[in-house]
Amino acid sequence: MKILHSADWHLGAKLHGQSRESEQQAFLDWFLETLARVQPDILLLAGDIFDTATPPVSAQRQYYHFLYQAAQQCDAIVIIAGNHDSAAFLDAPQALLANMQIYVVGQAPQNAAEAVFALETKNGRAIVAAVPFLRERDIRCTQVGESLADKASAIADGVRQYYQQAAEQAQKLRRGSEPLIALGHLFAAGGKTTDHDGVRDLFVGKLGHLSATIFPQCFDYVALGHLHLPQMVAQNPRIRYSGAPLMMGFGESVSEKHIVQLHFHERQPIIDAITVPVWQKLRQLRGRQETVIAEIEALLNDEAAVWLEIIIEEGVFDSALNARLQDLVANTSVKILRIQQPSTQDFVAALSDTRQLYEPQEVFAQRLEKTPFNDVEKAQLTADFLTILQQVHDAH
């Protein structure tokens, strides 16, 4: 049995205002060709299919066209919602897609057993627990007066219990030695990210960074989404992020992108990576003005098609530099999407001891200490604030 695992497509995403629709379409076309070549039994998509909860029509069209074509190459497709996705939007055509053996779980069912599927393929059977991004309201009720430590522990316990309930159902459905697979979208503790890659903390204050121990050991493979760099979790080859197939920020410009391919030998996953081609090169140029200009001229001489982020690291702010650099690349295949000059860095450095670089709850706690409220009142106000903050976080 062959399985492919991918995630974090972010259809409809832009990079500093630049459309990526043609690049995303090139990936989807390549992926369909890969499906035709590999002929997997099951395709797993671990969330953040779209970049926003209200994806543009063009992104919706790409998604449904891909699913129609992919369903002809796979015996089953399982899709979960990520934190960027609208659970209701993904769930809307659920019944229709199920007729094509495409199983979608957008909103987490109250009963985790309802998110578990026994998939019959031409090469055997597999049990998949499709757990979407779990919002706080899916797994717990806010408690009055709880501390941040209590809140973090409660979130971890809620996620752990949900996966445990799904695992129990998966084990009930097992008839013999078929593999048990979990699909999830979360931030595993110790996971690697890059600057400006669009990866959001899933709960305020990094409370949702979860240990790999939340996954019951009965799962033979855990296919994760959310982090954009392909990686194992806690050095465990059975628990993996496939990573995003496209570079989501300039910090990823030196990383290779993958689709995970696996098959099972007596429930032991044999894992390989399929390298995703690069359709749009990204590059970050750093240094003094003259160094950066020389590097741009070299790219122009090579007729390179590349998008650039420019970071000027020394000197003083030059009001004419942005226009000069844009004129340099005008009517070429080189595009400058972002320019950062020293004044921006100096300004941020000057703010290093101000509230602007604190977490919101830290600012609230500092302000609360200066009020006349007693400890009980402060605890209630903190709980109310964290509830509101999480609601704002979920809405964005």
From TrEMBL:
It comes from Dichelobacter nodosus (strain VCS1703A). The gene is sbcD. One of its GO terms (biological process) is DNA replication. This is Nuclease SbcCD subunit D. NCBIfam families: sbcd. Pfam families: Metallophos, SbcD_C. Residues 1-229 form the Calcineurin-like phosphoesterase domain. Heterodimer of SbcC and SbcD. It comes from the Bacteria.
